[in-house]
Every structure is written in C-alpha cells, then in structure tokens.
Amino acid sequence: MTASAIAAAVATRKLSAKEATEAALSRIAARDGVLNAFTDVTAERARAKAAEIDAAIAAGKSVGPLAGVPFAVKNLFDVEGLPTRAGSKINRDRAPAARDATLIARMEAAGAVLVGALNMGEYAYDFTGENVHDGPSRNPHDPTRMSGGSSGGSGSAVGGGLVPIALGSDTNGSIRVPSSFCGIFGLKPTYGRLSRARSFPFVMSLDHLGPFARSVEDLALAYDAMQGPDPDDAACTTRPAEPVSGLLSQELDGLRIGLAGGHFQTNLFPEAAEAVARVAAALKVTEVIEVPEAARARAAAYVISTTEGASLHLDRLRTRPHDFDPAVRDRLIAGAMIPAPLVDRAQKFRRWYRAKVLELFTSVDVLIAPATPCIAPKLGQATFMLDGVELPVRANIGIHTQPISFIGLPVVAVPIPLEPMPIGVQIIAAPWCEHVALRVAHALQQRGVAAAPAPRGVLENGSRSA
Amino acid sequence: MAEPWDDYIDAVGRALGLPIEEAWRPAIRANLDVSLKMAKLVDEFPLPDEAEPASVFTA
C-alpha cells in the first residue's frame, strides 16, 4: 500500500495504525534477511506510536496526513535512544541520541510511525550502498547488485516494499543514486529547504536531506510534512512551508522544459540514454540546453567534499584510523592534503557557476538529465567498460548528480522501469521550485513513463528469487 | 624509488598529526592524485579578484 492509501484507511478506521505497523514489521522480518536494509528495527517504539494514533482516532481527535504510515531513516538521523552511527564503526561508541532529528519529529507529528534505522555507506562518503561493517544493503530487483549510495538502505527498503517512505541524505547524489538503482522516486530539495538538525553531517556546504517513496503523491506528502524553518540548522531557510501536495495535478502547459546537454549526454550506458529519451518523448522535449562548465562543477564539488569531509573527521583519522573503512579513510587522508587556496577557489567557482545556471532558468523551467550513467552494478564491481574504455565504478556513478547538488537545485529522481533493471532520470528545477519538478514527475507517473516496479529480488519467505 | 607525492604526503601528514602507515600509502597517493586533478580543473578556471565564495554564513 502507498503511504496515501494507508493514511486514508487509518483516518477512516478501515485499517488501524497498529495493523499498518505490524504489517511493516512483518515485511521487514520476512525480507530484510536478503536486503540488509535495516540496521535497527525500533519495533517497541513503533508499536507505542501506533497505539497512540489509534487512541487519538478512537477519541475522535484529528490525526495528521501521514497517520499510521510506517517509515524508516538512514542511520545518520538521530533517533532517540540510539547512537547515531552514520554507517561507521567509530560512532557506535557515541552516547545514545537524546532527541530525534527534526525531520523525524515532523514526520511523527504528521502521524507517521518510525520503524527503524537504515544501512548506509560509511559516513555517507559512498555511491555503492556497500558497508564493510554492516554488509551491503542489496538491490530489491537483483540482490547481487548494488542498492546505490550512500542512502543504500533507504533505496533498498522502499524499493523492496518494506516501508512506503524512507528518509536519506544527498551531498553529491546519495538520494538520487539509490533512487535510480532501486527504481523509486526520490526528492533532493533545494539546499536549505529541509532542516538537517540532529543528523550526522558529511559536507556542510552540500548536505541535503530528503524523502524516498514509490509514488509522487507519497513523496509530496512526506516533503510537506517536513518543511518549515528550524533555527537548529544554520543553513535552513526562513521561508515558510510551501506545500506542494495540492499542486501535483496542474497541467504542464506553459512549462519550458529542456534536456541538459554536453556533460549530461556523455559517459552514458544505453539504458541511461534510453531512460532520458523516454522522458523526453513523453514530454515532447527536443531542445538541448548546454549547462556551462558542468564537468568543472563536478570537480569543484569533489574538492569541497573531500576537504570538508577530511576536516570533519580529522580527529578520528588521528586517533582511530584502523576503525574506518580503509577506502573511506584513505580518501579522507588525501582530502586533508589539498592546499587551502584550491578549496577557496572551488567555493568561488561555485558562486560563479550558480549565477550562470540561474541565468539558464530565466529561459527554461525544468532540465532533464540522467540520474546515473548506468543501472545498478554488481556488488563489489570495481570497473565498467564504457565506449571501449575501462572506468572505475565508484568515481563515475555520481558524475551527473554532482553538478546539480553543487548549487543546491531541487531535483526529483524518477524511476524508469526498464527491463530487467530500472534506472532514474533527474527532473531539475530552479531553486525553491520543488513544486515544478514534482508536477513534471507526477505527469510522467500519470502517463506511465515513470513507475516504481514491484521488487523481484525478494520473495515473501525471505529467499532470493531466480 | 620514491613516488612523486611521497615527500609531500609525509610532510603534510606530520603537519596535521595524521598517522600514515606504509600499507595505506599507495591508496592515499592514488586518491591524492585524483583529488589534485579535480582541484587543477578548478584552479585553471579564471575568476575575477572580486569573486565571492559561496559560504552560507549570515551575520
């Protein structure tokens, strides 16, 4: 069931929050042995919250738009009572979180029920969904493939139908990549739109939080529940909430849509090109718009990420280097060695690039670009062949997402259900125009072009299919 | 024969108080090489003296 259907059934007493919660806990018990999406299942807390909602309904009180909807969060969100591990071994020694992250509190204020915390790449420095401490989260359409990172457990849990909504973070693509690989919808909102308070950071300049879902309506419901200013996050906007759920069905007439050219049309496997072509055909888009210096933007995002990440983890690199995933440690140590003027230049270039891209948005409302260059690679796969050239997988998964998050543009990743594996397309809008990207995503869903395919990699008894 | 970045890795490692084990060196060197190539792309782009960084701090 979708989140919208669960909330409607719970509000009209056709289904209790308890039943919805128990169903999610049963699905997790049946399927997570294969998917490895969850690192913590908060069953006791979930049952207490569900009972609270059912009691409120029985007492005739109004309940929120997510009443009884089970959801889960990437394990970098603070969950009261759990140490916020952020995919690491080291953070397990932290004190249990005293208070939930702002976004969890807002989801629960709207009636949603937290059922657990989700696997992720260590410290979010990852595009694969693999984790040396917890094992990889697995792709729900083929468990021998990657879920995508770093919000791999979020992609796996929603793609595998364990929960209708999950939350994740996106610094360079970590919502859009798992959405693409797992065949689901993901929203990376405008930088500063959603509060990051009480979530474990990676790159403060680029960190965003956002929802995953199996339909655009559910994505919008979660997003609306989480909007609004928060003084606990210095980068969070003071703009009031701008709800989008009522706007999804608006006609696209008058919207100017273009295909991102150049950098976004190179280094693509045929599946990625096919997915973009399907979206373009459905929207009758032919105009190609060059995004200036996109490859350089990706390089600058890389520099800012590796250096801010190194700064964040410097003390842990000094005192507990053996407790890191060695691949993450060696990247962070290298990041600590980048000369400071180059980082300052990357931040100056960022402002230049932002101005150029904002100019584009005076003549276009939406840009279409691939979310990933490829479908989900095999777990452990180190290289792929593209145009006869062998390229490293990890470094290339985010080439099309990085130039977009670099300047905080809102993006909906929409799943195109190709066979045998789905792949995502980015619907990109101007800052603070999430509603525009969501309208286009909704139209693609209505036209049957974008859809979250049913998981084929897991059976109810928890064994692998095929 | 020492690799080109080894002296630099040792010096910056010392300056930052970062322990660096020999076994890690090839991976750190490879990552540094990629990161500096990325940084070079940024470095080569001409920006005016008046260019402001994109910080989020507001007083």
UniProtKB/TrEMBL annotation, chain A:
Domain called Amidase: residue spans: 19-435
Biased composition (Basic and acidic residues): 131-144
Stored Gene3D superfamilies: Amidase signature (AS) domain
Region of interest called Disordered, as start-end residue ranges on this chain: 131-156
Pfam family, one: Amidase
InterPro entries per UniProt: Amidase, Amidase_dom, AS_sf, Carboxybiuret_hydro_AtzE
PANTHER family attached to this UniProt entry: GLUTAMYL-TRNA(GLN) AMIDOTRANSFERASE, TRANSAMIDASE
Protein name: AtzE family amidohydrolase
Source organism: Bradyrhizobium denitrificans
TrEMBL record, chain B:
Pfam families in the record: AtzG-like
InterPro entries assigned: AtzG-like
Top-level lineage group: Bacteria
Protein's recorded name: DUF4089 domain-containing protein
Organism expressing this protein natively: Bradyrhizobium denitrificans
